Amino acid sequence: MKEKVLNGLRDGRTISGADLAQEFGVSRNMVWKAVERLRREGYTIGGTPRRGYRLLAVPDLIRPEEIATATGFFGRQVHYSWTIGSTNNVAKKLGMDGAPEGTVVVAERQTAGRGRLGRTWWDGGTGEIREVKEAATPPAGTSLLLSLLLRPSLPPGELVSLTLLAAVAVSRAVERTAGVSLGIKWPNDFLWRERKVAGIISEMVAEAETVAFVVLGIGINVNGRTWPTELVGKATSLLEVCGKKVDRTNLARAVLEEAERAYLAFMREGPAAIREEWLARNVTIGCRVALQTPRERVEGTAVGLGDDGSLLLKLTGGVRAFACGEVTCGREAEPAGEGHREESGERREGNPAGPERQWSRRTTLERSERDPNNTVNGEL
Ligand code: BTN
């Protein structure tokens, strides 16, 4: 009934409870109850005694029924919550319970959002200066917090490229929806002028060399404009970058459409399907970087991307490929003497987001743990 009443009011007309009741063949009391529920969910519905109801404003909440209208199988099942611990944890639980490929978990707020390397991920808050603790409806969030369950028929070793695929899909979606080109820092941090706008965590569950499923967890700072002290100067949002609010439902829909398109191309053609685009959008190749792996710390010049998505570093002893590690980007590499970079043809033309020029944050680490059930759970 709630949806019917909402649809009855969507065109902005003023309509009486009696007319709505007649239109839907229900009592006026049922219409009134539906209106009250909508108001509790954040819809502003005006009511004048003799003329009737009028929809004045819709809440800025994600509209889960609208995020998968143009995809084939991504988002056929959407699990939407106002508040959740971590969308990735819920997606993993659903994966264990046999949920189909393409299942999506999306939330307004996260209380235990996870970033890479065991870090926490701040969900962007509500955008309000002061949190309203006792509101009838939790205020809408400001971020896109979305996890996507995939069941690729690939050996675990070939999955690193999936994170690059996700990075390309998110970049395309942000461009389509907000008109902003973000720089990708290897493998999938999204930067605007050295500040982080979004990140992806890719987690795999595998048994005996077979991938059971992968969860891609995507966090995008969309409409936030207040930051905790530790993120001031390090994070920014699409609102701050493009100066206007971005509709998170439209962004989620674009992410799913682009991810499905890139995933199908990837499964058909392999990593080559997204490689060139990732290279064109990245801001790491061509920079001096420091890389901390589980075994060593090296400094060199990022000169390219391996076939499996690994980072190629030119070190004093030659070029080596690194599939995992924490990267910090330094100043841009000196063009002189960087023969491999020129030979590989992977030198970038400047990305508007620009390479990081200061030594800065840690980026990524591949990590995996084997649990007692002989299941490998790990970040890709
Ligand atoms: C990073 O460290 O850059 C990755 C951040 C990924 C955050 C997203 S938000 C939605 C999903 N749920 C989580 O708990 N984490 C990911």
Task: Give a written overview of the molecule.
The protein is of the alpha+beta class and 380 residues long. It has helices at residues 2-9, 17-24, 28-40, 87-96, 160-178, 238-242, 248-269, 272-281, 339-344, and strands at 44-48, 52-57, 78-84, 104-110, 143-150, 183-185, 189-192, 195-207, 210-221, 287-292, 297-305, 311-315, 318-322, 326-332, 367-370, 375-379. Strand 6 and strand 7 (189-192) form a beta hairpin. Strands 3, 4, 5, 6, 7, 8, 9, 15 and 16 form a 9-stranded mixed beta sheet that branches. Strands 13-12-11-10-14 form a 5-stranded antiparallel beta sheet. Strands 1-2 form a two-stranded antiparallel ribbon. The structure holds biotin.
- Provide the β-strand percentage band: 25-35%
Helix content: 25-40%
Structural class: alpha+beta
Cofactors, ions, other ligands: biotin
Count of DSSP strands: 16
Overall mean confidence score, pLDDT: 83
Distance between the termini: 45 Å
List the total number of helices. Answer: 9
Query: Largest sheet at a glance?
Result: 9 strands, mixed
Gyration radius from CA atoms, angstroms: 23 Å
> Ranges with pLDDT <50 over ≥5 residues?
130-135, 333-375
| H and E string | HHHEEEHEEHEEEEHHHEEEEEHEE
The oligomeric state of the chains shown is single chain
* Overall geometry: elongated
